[in-house]
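Sequence, structure tokens quoted for completeness.
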Amino acid sequence: MYNKKKFIEKLKNRDKAVTITIGNQKGGVGKTTNGTMICYTLAKMGIKTLVIDLDPQANATKSMLLTKSNHSDEIFTVDKTIMAGVQDNDLTDLPVNIMPDLDLLPSYSDFKGFTRFLYRNTQTDYEVDHYLEHLIEPLKENYDVIFIDIPPFSIETTNNAAILSDYVLISLQTQERSMTGAEDFLKTLSNVIEKYNLNTDILGIIEVLQKKQGSVDKYIMDQAIKEFGKENIFETVIPQMERLKRFDVNGIEEVDFFDKQVIGLYYKLTEEFLKRLHHYLYE
């Protein structure tokens, strides 16, 4: 039987973090927004959370640093990015505190060079796919939950993230290309899971509406149920919300009614996330 308070205590008493990758092979489908909002909400619940940004566009990094500025008067700049840490063979000094119980491993455009770096410093497919494992595993001892944000169209980064992850979330915007991107992402995951006999599971699919009550949205949602199964799709649906877009520009804050309306929706989504996690871990 799920009990939120008891489950959070179990999460906090684990030896290492539960690690989740959120992805889709198509960009612009709400992946980073959903990931950062869930992480923000987990931290507000007292769950020590780390966001690992493996996307050279660094949208999660920008959002988190803006959120930091909303919760502190400190003027802050990133001295070292994840790519620099990879080159130094050490990521332990990289986490940036955003607010209580929420840290960030920051990315930058220099992460575009990660794939080239991999092939210059490895000799086998196994080494390519497992390169980040020894760098990120030590961080798992310091957190309850870790979210990995990955770019679209990078098999090397996706494979590394899958190997590090216990579970995967898929962000699905209600448009045809997003549906195709989700299918392609699952194929990539299936290949690496089978290749290395991983225990990584799909935690669920989060639907993001492109247009409220649109006919295309309904069609894609119906197709998603047929393709992935209703049980694999989150009941909480994220509609188009102007204030949510503003969070990407200004960081996450809780100032007025509209802020709190968005936060309330993500509390609902995060509650469902925790229930699903409990089901996989303990049922």
The beta strands are 18-23, 49-53, 96-99, 102-105, 145-149, 167-173, 201-208. The radius of gyration is 18 Å. The longest helix spans residues 257-282.
